[in-house]
Amino acid sequence: RHPAAPPIFSSPQLPPVCDEIQLAILSGSRVLGTATLHLSQISSAGAELEEGTPGFLPCFGPSFLPFYGPRTDPAGTPSTDTGVAYRGRVLLELSTHMGTPDGRQREAIAPEDVARVQRHLPRRRFGLCGVFYSATMLPAGPELLRFELSLGNYGDTGDVTCKPAASVTPHGCPLFDGNRYHYLPWYGDKPVAAVTSSWEDAGHRWDTLNLLRATCRRLVSTHG
Question: What value, to the nearest 5°, has the Cα angle with vertex 18 and ends 1 and 109?
Fold first, then answer.
């Protein structure tokens, strides 16, 4: 390759034969929640897109990364219910550098510093409403079924840190259609679930992204 040609990164494998980074929230030896970053989504080999285009090593954020884990009962033991529950978010920034690690260790932020910053974070309220029109092709069984709508830990009936909300549909017993599958007999009464939540105001992040996307669409439509 000509010395002046731009570098083209090969597909990163960190460690070898690995294509994802998994992060976990731990309480002692117990895993509370996990999140996964796929290297194919946060890096680029460059040549895969266009010959001669330089790629980039894995990078992410700074952005909030949600963590999910198994549902637990009030005693803190894993529940027999299927599905996962929201466990929290981490403001994460990831960057990759070539070379030998310098051996520096990161210290945890003191709890009193976190509490002091949280009091000054501006917050915004968000509402989420869902209308369930039908529930078909359900598994057979005598158990009563219901649907739950949640936004983070808001609306999660197993989470005691937030106020209860009308986030679940009434229980219903699936009926057999007489042919192949079961369904919930909602007919003309469609269940409605609603959740109101409060989060720190991160508008300065998504407002800039929305502005850039709108500018790109305008340029494409104008010069396309």
Answer: 105
Q: Which domain holds residue 188?
A: 122-223
Question: Does 117 reside within a domain?
Answer: yes
Domain shared by 181 and 192, yes or no: yes
pLDDT tens track for 90-143 = 888 888 877 776 666 666 777 787 777 777 778 888 899 999 999 998 887 778
Count of structural domains, the chain: 2
Give 207's DSSP letter: H
Name all contacts of 172-175 with Cβ < 8 Å and 24+ positions apart: 172/135, 172/144, 172/145, 172/146, 173/142, 173/144, 173/145, 174/138, 174/139, 174/140, 174/141, 174/145
Q: Looking at the structure, tell me whether residues 76 and 135 fall in a common domain.
A: no
Task: State pLDDT tens for residues 4-23.
Answer: 444 444 444 455 557 889 99
Q: CA 215, 216, 222, 223 torsion: positive or negative?
A: positive
Ramachandran angles phi, psi of 160, nearest 5°? -95, 5
> In this structure, is residue 145 part of a structural domain?
yes
